[in-house]
Amino acid sequence: xxxxxxxxxxxxxxxxxxFEEFQRHFPLPPGAIEYGDKPDIVIRGPQLIGxxxxxxxxxxxxxxxxxxxxxxxxxxxxxxxxxxxxxKGGRPFEINVDFEPRALIRDVSVLADSIVAIALAVQHGPGxxxxxxxxxxxxxxxxxxxxxxxxxxxxxxxxxxxxxPMLDPARAQAVVDAKIEKLPGYRRCDVHWLLVVVDFWxxxxxxxxxxxxxSKLRRGAFExxxxxxxxxxxxxxxxxxx
Length: 242
What we know:
Elements: H1 2-25, E1 32-35, E2 41-44, E3 48-55, H2 67-87, E4 93-99, H3 108-122, E5 128-129, E6 141-150, E7 157-158, H4 169-182, E8 191-197, E9 217-218, E10 224-229, E11 234-236, E12 240-241
Parallel strand pairs: 3-8, 4-7, 8-10, 9-12
Antiparallel strand pairs: 1-2, 2-3, 4-6, 5-6, 10-11
């Protein structure tokens, strides 16, 4: 299972990088830092502190309209469309596609064929952002752009536009609850902390980091819970209850 092992190693490397950024922005108790699994980090000092690192996605990954699920299907559709377009002898223009943010992609092949048909229809016209009627029959597409110039190594891309929603306490609680459920299987420590990362560079995660007044997190067996956006050095410790 080399691919599974590589994915785990990549995840651990990201978790370690997020924690090291957290160290720069938040004063930690003294102690030797050890990296591992369940929990991801242990601080061995006056107390043995276990720190679990997780990410806060805007939507649950099981939601078929979640960005992290749609992203791969969008990219697959565009890559397949370009290959099919090239086999039909289309002129080598670059095509950029922006999809409706919550539109389901039920059939990648059908969507790819629709993109090909649009590209073939506009290949001899002027470049720039296409008029709405060029793709209005394809509800998954919000806008398309065709380059003015031809490129021998043209690459079609998903240039996705996003709005940045406010942090949702209910979604944060769902992420915390999932970790609370797993905590009994973790290595025993004196106390456990949870570091919930919001990664600005991932549109499936980026949120406005403001905790609503009056809202509280149920922390379960975690002593402390932090919401952390490393790229902006924003760290929130929401008020909590057991």
